[in-house]
Design goal:
The chain has 235 residues and is of the alpha/beta class. It has helices spanning 22-33, 40-53, 61-69, 98-108, 111-122, 135-139, 153-161, 165-182, 202-215, 221-226; strands spanning 11-15, 37-39, 73-76, 83-86, 89-90, 128-132, 145-150, 193-196. The strands form two sheets. Strands 2-6-1-7-8 form a five-stranded parallel β-sheet. Strands 3-4-5 form a three-stranded antiparallel β-sheet, with helices on one face. A hairpin with a 6-residue loop joins strand 3 (73-76) and strand 4 (83-86). The structure holds 2'-deoxycytidine-5'-monophosphate.
């Protein structure tokens, strides 16, 4: 029934908790491999924007679904970032507001909203790199390359705000709260490569991932040309 059944193996998934660096890493890997990057979180944010704009109680699954069915939401993947169109209008800039942040975990907890997001993602033609919480375990179980990025709450807070002690505690508390709210959705695939990114900067994580992919025979186009013998083992 699904389109691209075999091609879905060409999807690369990045899952993990909030602020683990998934989208930055996924975007860099997508660019290196010259394939689109797809942000699943943006679709949950778009669903939340639709529900809150309609004045719907976001804990009411039926009402959220009714609001979603009344609109057309389209995700436009790209290597630099994703755009979301709501009834043809670009609403990308409106998806990171405090209101969306405060409601998105509740909207994302509804099983039929998750089905709505999954269906849209499965319509995207592979190959691409996608980030989320359950991309490898639930949405693209057939993907060949799956990564699960982790880091401590303190490390993730530091990455978000730097070392400024004043903000650090509040941001760490907010991340821990989000972890608790997203816990049910956060599911590592049994065949995911777990990467503890504690103490690693973005360049180091990207290098690790590209090294692992190269070991598996998936080298970036430029690297392939520069190093036809392959290799590229990670440290
Ligand atoms: O990745 P993000 O912060 O933009 O995600 C926004 C919210 O959507 C986050 O609270 C968790 C949820 N989400 C999810 O449940 N499943 C996904 N695959 C992606 C995001």
């Amino acid at each position: 029934m699904r389109r691209f059944e075999g091609a879905l193996r060409a999807v690369i998934t990045f899952d993990g908790p909030a602020a683990a660096g998934k989208s930055s890493v996924a975007q860099r890997v997508a660019r290196a491999l010259d394939v689109p990057f797809v942000s699943s979180g943006l679709l949950y944010r778009a669903a939340t924007e639709v529900a809150t704009s309609a004045g719907v109680d976001t804990s009411d699954e039926d009402a959220v679904l009714r609001a979603l069915r009344a609109h057309t939401v389209a995700l436009e993947p790209g290597s630099a970032g994703n755009r979301v169109r709501l009834d043809g209008r670009d609403v990308s800039a409106a998806l990171h507001t405090d209101l969306v942040d405060a409601n998105v975990s509740f909207v994302a907890a509804h099983p039929r909203v998750r089905d709505w997001v999954s269906e849209q993602l499965r319509e995207v033609p592979p190959p691409f790199v996608v980030d989320g919480r359950d991309m490898g375990a639930v949405v693209f179980p057939e993907a060949r390359h799956k990564f699960f990025l982790t880091a401590s709450v303190q490390e993730r807070a530091r990455r978000r705000v730097g070392e400024r002690a004043a903000d650090l505690e509040a941001v760490a508390a907010a991340i821990a709260r989000r972890d608790a709210l997203d816990a049910k959705q956060l599911e590592p695939a049994p065949d995911a490569h777990h990467l503890d990114t504690e103490g690693l900067d973005l360049d180091a994580v990207v290098a690790r991932v590209l090294g692992i992919l190269a070991e598996r025979g998936l080298a970036p186009p430029a690297a392939k040309a520069a190093a036809p013998r392959g290799g590229g083992a990670s440290p």
